[in-house]
Amino acid sequence: MGKNYSALSKSIIDYVGGTENIISLYHCITRLRFKLKDESIAQKNTDEIKKIPGVLSVVEANNQYQVVIGNEVEDVYKTIMANYDIKSALGSDESEALDDDRSGNIFIRFFNTLSSIFNPIIMPLAGAGMIKALLVVLTTYHFMSADGSTYKILSAAGNSVFFFLPLFLAFSAARVFRTNQFISLAIVAALLEPNFTALVTENGVTVDFLGIPAILMGYSGTVIPAIISIYLYSKLETLLKRMIPKSLEIFLLPMVALLIMVPLTVLVVGPIGVTLGDGIGSAMNFISDRSGLLAGLIIGAGWTFLVMIGIHWGVVPIMINNLAVYGYDVIRPMVAAATFASAGVALGVFLRSKDKNVKVLSLSAIVPALLGGITEPIVYGLSVKYKKPLIAQTIAGGIAGAFMGAMQTKAIVYVFPALTTLPAFLGDTFVYYLIGIALAFFLSAILTFAFGLGEESSSSNEETEGQVNTISLPLDGEVIELEKVNDPVFSEKTMGDGFAVIPTDGVIKAPFSGKVELVFPTKHAIGLKSTSGVEVLIHIWHQYR
Q: Which residue among 67, 144, 231, 315 sits deepest, i.e. has the most Cβ atoms within 10 Å of its Cβ?
């Protein structure tokens, strides 16, 4: 890890109420996600948590208390898990940390479930997607033949996750629904078994199963059937465990489960799931065809807010389903508009701010945003914090999203929008994608620079609280304690802490680089503010004792 995260970890754990208040913890790409027994303990300390060096922000959503760390979240998570006895999912997989929470409404529980199922498979999905996109580049520009063995081996690597996507979803869903993962795999694997797939010449073909007509569907790459099937199996497993003797459970439970769930999935769940997925895809394409501009405007402008409250996972299955059904998706380019607009904010803040710390933060956040599509350090560290950049980001994302929606811009695989994933958008609309992301980035940077940092002063003050700042003496002389000054306004520190100087000459110099904020009419008091946000009052008094 290199860097020491012990102090940061301890501060976070203490402020959320200690280990005794933590039910479970996991992390996503940028956030520590706590499930707490009593959220009010953490809520009353939220302002203090936000001030911890290394914490970008705090989000309360989906019955979780989320501490936004940024790119170093995995290192912070590992430090916490190594030093505290806290229940966790494996790695960054949240599904084991997901409790059957009935306190939230059905809307929250639905998005919690989707997040838990899809979050673990996003990385392999994106990695395989990039291999597929890379092969498109290599074959398009004749660096590799699609008939060669090298291509076929690499193609297998790229297609693996997409072809067997129902298996990945089954395994992840089983963990979320608290059921046996390997029996779940066996149930869904039956849908991809060669003898079964040989029956499926095309969707809608009808065959006979014990005299019952079965409508056959192709399940490779599908999303909904596996999730519904494993949800139903989780209920069946609970029932079977009550009925089957413990001594027979090891073989009888999986046998009965397969005998019931595979036919049920083939006869009912599968066709309904495929039809539902096709319907969702058709609906999205209908909206995009009729009003791509409006859809792009809404998604480009609103995606950041969906991410902030954690319900963007509700859209992810739709995008993956579109890729499975049509071979392309029109939503991902609209999301890219929001991503590159966030990156533009970082550039605009870097150019506009005079605060060295803010410049360092904004510059360091540009790289992961442009190369990896990770924007939360920008969203929470800059946009939300300073307010006006969020407005600029929303406007630029909406305009760029509207443009790409109007031009029907497509993604051919699921990836995080970034410069490194450009091949994922190759095709007849690729040039529109390039124009769209450039528009989002530069327009956002220009608007951010023009709007300024709305809450710069107050934010700077908050950042400097609790920090040690070294300044030069404004004049030569003897330094005395402020309490010895014969003026209760200063000696009692009504104006704040400080010190007094008995001068040896009459020359007063600025103690740092900055600007004059105020000058009293009598010229005996001057207010200064440094470039890093430190505010100082220099008061001239002729009777100090």
A: 67
Whether this prediction's pTM lies above 0.85 is answered by no
Q: Is 329 helix (H, G, I), strand (E, B) or coil?
A: strand
Q: Are 27 and 77 in contact (CB under 8 A)?
A: yes
| Beta bridge pairs of residue 525 | 539
Which domains does the chain show, CATH number per domain? 6-104 (3.30.1360.60), 120-288 (no CATH), 328-462 (no CATH), 472-539 (2.70.70.10)
Structure token pair of residue 363: 């510059």
Encoded amino acid at 193, one letter: E
- Which residue, among 411, 389, 406, 395, has the nearest Cα to 336 in the 3D structure? 411
When pLDDT is averaged across residues 85-101 and rounded to a whole number, the result is: 52
Summarised one tens digit per residue, pLDDT across range 423-441 is: 989 889 999 999 999 999 9
User: For tokens 């009593």, what's the residue?
Assistant: 38
Amino acid at 294: L
Integer CA distances (angstroms), 319 to 63, 75, 274, 307, 525, in order: 25, 30, 15, 15, 62
Q: Which residues fall within 8 angstroms of residue 196, CB to CB, at 6 or more apart?
A: 190, 266
The DSSP bridge partners found for residue 515 are 529
Catalytic residue annotation: 28
Rg (alpha carbons) of the chain, rounded to whole number: 29
